[in-house]
Amino acid sequence: MKIIDAHHHFWDPVANYHPWLRDEPMIPFRYGDYSSIRKPFMPDDYDAVSRGWDIVATVTMEGEWDPADPVGEAHWMQDLANRTGRPAAHVAQAWLDREDLAEVLSVYKTLPIVKSVRHKPRANPAPGGPAGGMMDTAYREGFRRLADSGLMFDLQTPWWHLDEAMDLAALAPETPIILNHAGLPSDRSAAGLAGWEAALRRFATLPQSVIKISGLGLPDRPWALEDNRAIIRTCIDVFGPERAMFASNFPVDGVCGSFDVIFSGFDAATRQDPEAARRALFHDTAHRVYGL
């Protein structure tokens, strides 16, 4: 199976400033202790962890680079791609509610690998709280301006904010929204999974929506197919293979499991699916969506 890894990171926090990878104390993190990934992760490191899998292209995700230098990471990634041929595409940092957004987007138009942007909106720690950042006026105006840039939007938010994402999407219905990490189904109780699936089904009615099946780890627990099979199958059922893609989220998900364990899980969970569906999930959807 030829694979496009639709979401991972390259970073060098020794040479470049990523606050969460350099500063002390470490931030609260959904997987717990992440000290093991506070080091460079470059193409050679990726090759080492993914050995044995036929990775034909990858898409890198912004790694929370120094916000005082909003285009620095994208320039660094474009230079890396020019030198090594990787990544094939990049999702760049863009603060939708900052005054420099127009300038940042104009820079991204000059960088061929930048296909999408991400700005994690302010979120509540659990369902039932007040509106999150996607309802802020400045954030919404920034999202609307993405339509003029031709860039897509990668959205990372807990599932209980997806109705707000649908409201946001109406401001620019032509802008693809790529939901990161399966909508973050961290609460695996029956009630939590029911709420997640219902929100996912509503969000999937947006023609512009796509999902990445990644980031499925649980804190202080090794990645296991028995924990994640139902999540994987629900994502595929809700969005269809033509709007879903697999991704490693490495090195972050390396906190929970090896690359081989995670992709073997994706493989096992779809073993009975038609080959065309598997090609879409492992390769074709990412190829089409990111214009590779």
TrEMBL record:
Domain Amidohydrolase-related: 4-292
Record-linked InterPro entries: Amidohydro-rel, Metal_Hydrolase, Metallo-dep_Lactonases
Keyword Coiled coil: no
Gene3D superfamilies reported for this sequence: Metal-dependent hydrolases
Pfam families attached to this UniProt entry: Amidohydro_2 (PF04909)
Transmembrane segments: none
Family classification: Belongs to the metallo-dependent hydrolases superfamily.
Protein name stated in the entry: Putative amidohydrolase 2
Species this chain originates from: Dinoroseobacter shibae (strain DSM 16493 / NCIMB 14021 / DFL 12)
